[in-house]
Amino acid sequence: MPASIGIAFPPRLKRATDALRAALRVTLDLALPPLCPACREPVEGRGLCPACWSKLSFITRPYCERLGIPFVYDPGPGILSMEAIADPPAYRRARAAVRFDDISRALVHALKYGDRLDLAPMMGRWISHAGRELLAEADALVPVPLHWRRLWARRFNQSAMLAAAVSAQSGVPIAGGALKRVKPTAQQVGLSRSERAQNVQGAFRVPEEGKAAVAGRRLVLIDDVLTSGATVDGCARALLRAGAANVDVLIFARVADPVRTSI
Ligand SMILES: [Zn+2]
Fold this sequence. Notes:
alpha/beta, 4-stranded parallel β-sheet, about 10% strand, disordered N terminus, disordered C terminus, binds zinc ion
Protein backbone atom coordinates (compact mmCIF):
# COMPACT_ATOMS: atom_id res chain seq x y z
CA MET A 1 0.00 0.00 0.00
CA PRO A 2 1.82 3.18 -1.11
CA ALA A 3 0.12 5.35 1.54
CA SER A 4 1.35 3.25 4.47
CA ILE A 5 4.85 2.98 2.94
CA GLY A 6 4.90 6.79 2.78
CA ILE A 7 4.32 7.08 6.51
CA ALA A 8 7.17 4.63 7.26
CA PHE A 9 9.74 6.56 5.17
CA PRO A 10 12.75 7.96 7.05
CA PRO A 11 12.86 11.82 7.07
CA ARG A 12 15.17 12.23 4.08
CA LEU A 13 13.00 10.02 1.88
CA LYS A 14 9.88 11.76 3.17
CA ARG A 15 11.39 15.08 2.05
CA ALA A 16 12.03 13.57 -1.39
CA THR A 17 8.44 12.34 -1.69
CA ASP A 18 7.19 15.76 -0.53
CA ALA A 19 9.27 17.41 -3.24
CA LEU A 20 7.90 14.96 -5.81
CA ARG A 21 4.36 15.65 -4.64
CA ALA A 22 4.98 19.40 -4.93
CA ALA A 23 6.30 18.93 -8.48
CA LEU A 24 3.19 16.88 -9.37
CA ARG A 25 1.01 19.60 -7.90
CA VAL A 26 2.67 22.17 -10.17
CA THR A 27 1.92 19.90 -13.14
CA LEU A 28 -1.70 19.47 -12.02
CA ASP A 29 -2.02 23.23 -11.49
CA LEU A 30 -1.37 23.69 -15.19
CA ALA A 31 -4.26 21.38 -16.06
CA LEU A 32 -6.82 22.37 -13.39
CA PRO A 33 -8.13 25.91 -12.79
CA PRO A 34 -7.11 27.26 -9.37
CA LEU A 35 -9.78 27.38 -6.66
CA CYS A 36 -10.84 30.38 -4.58
CA PRO A 37 -9.23 29.65 -1.19
CA ALA A 38 -12.38 30.85 0.64
CA CYS A 39 -15.32 29.27 -1.24
CA ARG A 40 -13.49 26.65 -3.38
CA GLU A 41 -15.09 27.89 -6.62
CA PRO A 42 -12.77 27.84 -9.67
CA VAL A 43 -11.24 31.27 -10.31
CA GLU A 44 -9.46 32.94 -13.20
CA GLY A 45 -5.87 33.65 -12.26
CA ARG A 46 -4.95 33.35 -8.60
CA GLY A 47 -6.44 34.63 -5.36
CA LEU A 48 -10.04 35.22 -4.37
CA CYS A 49 -13.14 35.01 -6.57
CA PRO A 50 -14.95 38.36 -7.12
CA ALA A 51 -17.70 37.51 -4.57
CA CYS A 52 -15.22 36.71 -1.76
CA TRP A 53 -13.01 39.65 -2.75
CA SER A 54 -15.96 42.04 -2.28
CA LYS A 55 -16.53 40.66 1.26
CA LEU A 56 -12.90 41.19 2.35
CA SER A 57 -12.65 43.86 5.05
CA PHE A 58 -9.57 46.07 4.56
CA ILE A 59 -8.57 48.21 7.55
CA THR A 60 -8.31 51.92 6.76
CA ARG A 61 -8.20 55.09 8.87
CA PRO A 62 -9.61 56.09 11.29
CA TYR A 63 -7.75 53.69 13.58
CA CYS A 64 -5.69 53.92 16.78
CA GLU A 65 -2.29 55.28 15.70
CA ARG A 66 -0.58 52.98 18.20
CA LEU A 67 -2.40 49.64 17.92
CA GLY A 68 -4.06 50.00 14.52
CA ILE A 69 -7.47 49.01 15.96
CA PRO A 70 -10.17 50.53 13.70
CA PHE A 71 -12.41 53.18 15.27
CA VAL A 72 -16.16 53.09 14.69
CA TYR A 73 -16.16 56.90 14.32
CA ASP A 74 -13.33 59.38 13.68
CA PRO A 75 -12.14 60.85 17.02
CA GLY A 76 -9.67 63.19 15.26
CA PRO A 77 -6.00 62.87 14.27
CA GLY A 78 -3.52 61.16 16.59
CA ILE A 79 -6.11 59.88 19.09
CA LEU A 80 -5.20 56.59 20.78
CA SER A 81 -7.56 53.78 21.74
CA MET A 82 -8.42 53.02 25.39
CA GLU A 83 -6.49 49.74 25.02
CA ALA A 84 -3.31 51.58 23.95
CA ILE A 85 -3.52 53.94 26.93
CA ALA A 86 -4.53 51.37 29.57
CA ASP A 87 -2.13 48.60 28.51
CA PRO A 88 0.57 49.97 26.16
CA PRO A 89 2.49 47.27 24.27
CA ALA A 90 6.28 46.96 24.01
CA TYR A 91 6.08 47.60 20.26
CA ARG A 92 5.66 51.13 18.92
CA ARG A 93 2.92 50.78 16.29
CA ALA A 94 0.90 47.96 14.73
CA ARG A 95 -0.89 47.88 11.38
CA ALA A 96 -2.92 45.12 9.75
CA ALA A 97 -4.16 44.71 6.17
CA VAL A 98 -7.59 43.21 6.91
CA ARG A 99 -9.98 42.33 9.71
CA PHE A 100 -9.88 38.68 10.82
CA ASP A 101 -13.16 37.22 9.53
CA ASP A 102 -14.35 34.18 7.54
CA ILE A 103 -12.64 35.30 4.32
CA SER A 104 -9.27 36.32 5.79
CA ARG A 105 -9.33 33.21 8.03
CA ALA A 106 -9.69 31.07 4.88
CA LEU A 107 -6.71 32.85 3.30
CA VAL A 108 -4.56 32.40 6.41
CA HIS A 109 -5.50 28.72 6.72
CA ALA A 110 -4.88 28.08 3.01
CA LEU A 111 -1.39 29.57 3.37
CA LYS A 112 -0.63 27.88 6.69
CA TYR A 113 -2.10 24.40 6.33
CA GLY A 114 -3.19 24.05 2.72
CA ASP A 115 0.14 24.68 1.03
CA ARG A 116 -1.26 27.61 -0.97
CA LEU A 117 2.09 29.40 -0.96
CA ASP A 118 1.03 31.08 -4.20
CA LEU A 119 -1.20 33.36 -2.06
CA ALA A 120 1.79 34.92 -0.24
CA PRO A 121 2.63 37.60 -2.88
CA MET A 122 -0.97 38.89 -2.90
CA MET A 123 -1.20 38.92 0.92
CA GLY A 124 2.25 40.56 1.04
CA ARG A 125 1.07 43.35 -1.27
CA TRP A 126 -1.86 44.13 1.01
CA ILE A 127 0.38 44.06 4.10
CA SER A 128 2.90 46.38 2.39
CA HIS A 129 0.14 48.82 1.52
CA ALA A 130 -1.27 48.85 5.07
CA GLY A 131 2.24 49.31 6.52
CA ARG A 132 3.77 51.69 4.00
CA GLU A 133 4.45 54.39 6.65
CA LEU A 134 6.14 51.84 8.93
CA LEU A 135 8.15 50.30 6.09
CA ALA A 136 9.40 53.72 4.95
CA GLU A 137 11.21 54.05 8.32
CA ALA A 138 12.35 50.43 8.68
CA ASP A 139 15.87 48.95 8.51
CA ALA A 140 14.79 45.30 8.45
CA LEU A 141 11.87 42.85 8.70
CA VAL A 142 11.72 40.11 11.35
CA PRO A 143 9.23 37.25 10.77
CA VAL A 144 7.70 35.83 13.97
CA PRO A 145 9.63 32.53 14.28
CA LEU A 146 8.18 29.06 14.80
CA HIS A 147 9.76 26.64 17.26
CA TRP A 148 12.01 24.28 15.26
CA ARG A 149 9.77 21.31 16.08
CA ARG A 150 6.70 22.98 14.58
CA LEU A 151 8.77 24.24 11.63
CA TRP A 152 9.88 20.67 11.01
CA ALA A 153 6.28 19.39 11.12
CA ARG A 154 4.88 22.12 8.87
CA ARG A 155 7.97 22.41 6.60
CA PHE A 156 7.70 26.22 6.32
CA ASN A 157 6.96 29.30 8.44
CA GLN A 158 3.98 31.21 7.06
CA SER A 159 5.25 34.47 8.66
CA ALA A 160 8.58 34.06 6.83
CA MET A 161 6.66 33.55 3.56
CA LEU A 162 4.73 36.79 4.18
CA ALA A 163 7.94 38.62 5.19
CA ALA A 164 9.61 37.51 1.93
CA ALA A 165 6.63 38.89 -0.03
CA VAL A 166 6.69 42.20 1.91
CA SER A 167 10.46 42.44 1.39
CA ALA A 168 10.08 41.90 -2.38
CA GLN A 169 7.38 44.56 -2.46
CA SER A 170 9.04 47.19 -0.23
CA GLY A 171 12.77 46.54 -0.71
CA VAL A 172 13.23 46.33 3.10
CA PRO A 173 15.59 43.38 3.80
CA ILE A 174 14.83 40.49 6.16
CA ALA A 175 16.98 40.13 9.29
CA GLY A 176 17.29 36.33 9.05
CA GLY A 177 18.03 34.51 12.31
CA ALA A 178 17.51 37.67 14.40
CA LEU A 179 14.91 36.02 16.61
CA LYS A 180 14.39 32.46 17.85
CA ARG A 181 11.44 30.78 19.52
CA VAL A 182 13.26 28.95 22.29
CA LYS A 183 10.18 27.57 24.08
CA PRO A 184 7.65 25.34 22.27
CA THR A 185 4.55 27.34 23.25
CA ALA A 186 1.08 25.82 23.31
CA GLN A 187 -1.35 26.96 20.60
CA GLN A 188 -2.91 30.28 21.63
CA VAL A 189 -6.40 29.13 20.55
CA GLY A 190 -8.87 29.11 23.45
CA LEU A 191 -6.56 30.89 25.90
CA SER A 192 -7.56 34.06 27.75
CA ARG A 193 -5.61 37.29 27.32
CA SER A 194 -3.51 36.76 30.46
CA GLU A 195 -2.97 33.07 29.63
CA ARG A 196 -1.68 34.10 26.19
CA ALA A 197 0.81 36.53 27.74
CA GLN A 198 1.90 33.79 30.20
CA ASN A 199 2.21 31.28 27.35
CA VAL A 200 4.75 33.38 25.40
CA GLN A 201 6.71 34.52 28.50
CA GLY A 202 10.38 33.85 27.76
CA ALA A 203 9.49 32.11 24.49
CA PHE A 204 11.58 34.38 22.24
CA ARG A 205 15.28 35.22 22.30
CA VAL A 206 17.79 37.03 20.10
CA PRO A 207 20.63 34.50 19.63
CA GLU A 208 24.26 35.62 19.91
CA GLU A 209 24.70 35.46 16.12
CA GLY A 210 21.55 37.57 15.60
CA LYS A 211 22.58 40.50 17.84
CA ALA A 212 24.39 42.49 15.11
CA ALA A 213 21.22 42.48 12.98
CA VAL A 214 19.16 43.86 15.89
CA ALA A 215 21.23 46.38 17.88
CA GLY A 216 20.41 50.00 17.04
CA ARG A 217 18.07 49.02 14.19
CA ARG A 218 14.47 49.92 13.40
CA LEU A 219 12.65 46.61 12.99
CA VAL A 220 9.25 45.53 11.72
CA LEU A 221 7.84 42.22 12.97
CA ILE A 222 5.73 40.29 10.45
CA ASP A 223 2.99 37.79 11.41
CA ASP A 224 -0.17 36.36 9.87
CA VAL A 225 -2.79 36.93 12.59
CA LEU A 226 -2.98 39.18 15.65
CA THR A 227 -5.47 38.30 18.38
CA SER A 228 -4.43 39.59 21.82
CA GLY A 229 -1.02 40.82 20.58
CA ALA A 230 0.77 38.67 23.20
CA THR A 231 2.99 36.91 20.63
CA VAL A 232 4.27 40.06 18.89
CA ASP A 233 4.63 41.78 22.27
CA GLY A 234 6.85 38.89 23.46
CA CYS A 235 8.90 39.20 20.25
CA ALA A 236 9.19 42.99 20.61
CA ARG A 237 10.39 42.67 24.22
CA ALA A 238 13.15 40.25 23.18
CA LEU A 239 14.27 42.52 20.30
CA LEU A 240 14.26 45.65 22.50
CA ARG A 241 16.25 43.82 25.21
CA ALA A 242 18.85 43.05 22.51
CA GLY A 243 19.10 46.78 21.72
CA ALA A 244 16.70 47.33 18.80
CA ALA A 245 16.07 51.08 18.26
CA ASN A 246 12.34 50.42 17.94
CA VAL A 247 9.95 47.68 16.89
CA ASP A 248 6.81 48.08 14.77
CA VAL A 249 4.38 45.29 13.87
CA LEU A 250 2.81 44.39 10.52
CA ILE A 251 0.09 41.74 10.40
CA PHE A 252 -2.03 40.27 7.64
CA ALA A 253 -5.28 40.01 9.66
CA ARG A 254 -6.18 41.32 13.09
CA VAL A 255 -9.11 40.57 15.35
CA ALA A 256 -10.71 44.02 15.43
CA ASP A 257 -12.29 43.46 18.82
CA PRO A 258 -9.77 41.35 20.75
CA VAL A 259 -11.87 41.00 23.89
CA ARG A 260 -14.95 39.52 22.23
CA THR A 261 -13.60 37.47 19.30
CA SER A 262 -11.39 34.39 19.34
CA ILE A 263 -9.79 32.37 16.57
ZN1 LIG B 1 -14.69 32.74 -3.33
